[in-house]
Amino acid sequence: MAIREELWDFPHVMQLKVMGAADAPLEEVVVTVLETHLGDFERGLNLSRKPSAKGTFVSITANITVHNKEQVEGIYRDLNASPHVKITL
Fold it and tell me: Between these two residues, 49 and 42, which has the higher pLDDT value?
């Protein structure tokens, strides 16, 4: 994912949504990627989990602050590289 930096104001507060199968270790994948790129990510304060109506899938929402284009691209690249991640928004 390539972003146009001139369209963003950094630091930038954003909500990141990640979806995958309910039985996958999705939360661990998200936390690991965010800790790698952000360093100061606090799971308890910044992460929520919501199951789908049938319980087949789960969405993880993370409230994050990114400081540059490379962080955004790295987060999306690493999340999309995981076999447990179906969709990132």
Answer: 49
Report, as an integer, the average pLDDT of 10-34.
96
C-alpha dihedral sign at 76, 74, 47, 4: negative
> Are the C-beta atoms of 50 and 58 separated by less than 8 Å?
yes
pTM for the full model?
0.89
User: What's the pLDDT at 1?
Assistant: 57
In 3D, which of 26, 37, 24, 23 has the Cα closest to residue 76? 37
Q: Which CATH class is domain 5-88?
A: alpha beta
Which sequence spans correspond to the domains of the chain? 5-88
Q: How far apart are CA 30 and CA 81, in angstroms?
A: 12
CA distance 31 to 66: 15
**Is the Cβ–Cβ distance between 41 and 60 less than 8 Å?**
no
